[in-house]
Amino acid sequence: RQQALQQRIGRSLAGLGLLVLGLMVWIVVKDYLEAGIQPSIALIQAKRLGVFAVGIALAYHWRRQNPEAHKRLIFLATFAVLDAAFFRMFWLFPDFGIQPWVTMAHVWQFGLLVPFNVYDLKTRGAVHPVFLIGIPVIAAPQFLAAALW
To answer: Sign (positive/negative) of CA torsion 8, 12, 14, 17?
Structure first.
């Protein structure tokens, strides 16, 4: 109901997305130059950078023409970088004996998508195309990296 306020806040936060992306690139380059990065970690970092950058860019582009896609793209861009938080919370969630724990962290992270897809199924009768494309794009490198771990 407060679309004008949301749009003002969104415009002011657009620069924040660019700042976050710049900091992500800086951290990855710094880590790579200082210590090198294992292939599994490099894959996760590339996924984070790519999905965040493309998700934010597409969300900005479609903010007026397709608000449903805009909202989901913003969420997926943020979701793509949440795995770092879940990796650090392995002590909080049960692993059900699944090894490596990285795989279970990804499973718990993907649990966050359930409410969005249930909502889409109830209101639209189908999962939104942004999720149909975005979820596999995020999941494939994450589970491949877990297998390489």
So the answer is: negative
- Give the residue among 19, 76, 15 at the shortest CA–CA distance from 50: 76
Instruction: Name the residue with tokens 């660019």.
Output: 18
The C-alpha atoms of residue 7 and residue 117 are separated, in whole angstroms, by 25
pLDDT tens sequence across 55-75: 999 998 888 889 899 999 999
Question: Could you give phi then psi for residue 11, rounded to 5 degrees?
Answer: -65, -40
Angstrom distance (rounded) from CA 72 to CA 43: 23
Residues ≥6 apart with Cβ < 8 Å to 130? 68, 69, 72, 73, 76
Sign for the CA dihedral angle at 24, 25, 28, 33 comes to negative
Q: Which of 142, 139, 141, 117 is nearest to 129 (CA)?
A: 117
Residue spans of the chain under pLDDT 70 = 95-96, 98-102, 149
**Positive or negative, the Cα torsion across 55, 60, 64, 67?**
positive
